[in-house]
Specification:
By secondary structure, this protein is of the alpha/beta class. 36% of the residues lie in helices and 22% in strands. The longest helix has 19 residues. Keywords: Methyltransferase, Transferase. GO terms for molecular function: S-adenosylmethionine-dependent methyltransferase activity.
């Protein structure tokens, strides 16, 4: 069975994103937690802080989610004014100074920021060209945009696991693919999309291998896609439980279950006028 691309509206539906998908930080935290078992460990907030070394003034974290990066920037760079923003009011929780805002229409004046962060979120944006234009619009002439996403090759083992488990549940050799989030904005596609506004784009690749000896982190990651459960074409909970069994079988046979990762951070500057 050939994998079909995820329809855009499943990934960009603002109502779904602000409620079922990111109404709280639960599902995002489950996906983030899987990286505890990655080698090498990449300190993503630390990398972002390092890229902000020469930045002064205000920084917006657009699509800030549960505020993981906001907290780190505020801790390491108290001299910066950090503006947390997200389309979901619920996930913002108690993040100080957070506002509900859409990257496609930022409530920020032209040239007001030293930097803007758009981390693992542009694949959720319906009009990516407009979003990228907005990221450039709000930057001062010497400002930077820091963007992150995953490669087309990222975590293919999890996709294979899901389709095998779905096939087992459906009684066919291989089931349908699950919803793909980053497929709309991959590490390979990002430079061309960002290049419409930014002339200087530097990519920091972040490869690694996750290895677990307990199925739970993998199961939690798969279960974090619950917001799209009715779009998977398979009984969601039964597939999750079958995936758990398959991971445990691999762990018992091989001593661990391995997942190959490739994400990346793109540091972007506008052309000098």
């Amino acid at each position: 069975m050939t994998a079909q691309p995820t329809p855009d509206h499943l990934v960009t539906d603002r109502s779904l994103l602000s409620t079922k998908a990111y109404g709280t930080g639960q599902h995002l935290a489950a996906r983030q937690s899987l990286y505890q078992w990655q080698t090498p460990r990449h300190d993503l907030p630390g990398i972002v802080v390092n890229e902000l070394t020469d930045i002064r003034g205000a920084v917006a974290d657009v699509g800030c989610g549960n505020g993981k990066f906001v907290a780190r920037v505020r801790e390491d760079r108290p001299d910066l004014t950090v503006l947390p923003m997200d389309v979901s009011h619920g996930i913002l929780g108690t993040i100080p100074g957070a506002v509900v805002a859409d990257v496609q229409q930022l409530p920020i004046a032209d040239g007001a920021l030293g930097a803007v962060l758009a981390l693992h979120m542009l694949y959720h944006v319906e009009d990516q060209d407009q979003a990228v234009w907005e990221l450039g619009r709000v930057l001062a002439p010497d400002g930077i945009a820091i963007v992150s996403t995953n490669s087309q090759t990222d975590k293919r083992e999890l996709e294979h696991l899901w389709r095998q488990a779905a096939g087992d549940v459906l009684g066919i050799p291989e089931g349908p693919a699950r919803v793909q989030l980053s497929a709309r904005f991959t590490l390979e596609d990002a430079p061309a999309i960002l290049g419409a506004v930014f002339a200087d784009i530097r990519t920091i690749p972040l490869p690694g291998v996750i290895e677990v000896t307990d199925a739970e982190p993998v199961v939690a990651h798969l279960a974090s896609y619950e917001a799209w459960a009715d779009k998977m074409g398979v009984p969601f909970r039964k597939t999750i439980e079958r995936a758990r069994e398959r991971v445990n079988e691999v762990i018992q046979a091989e001593g661990g279950f391995r997942v190959t990762c490739l994400g990346g951070i793109l540091v972007c500057r506008r052309p000098c006028l």
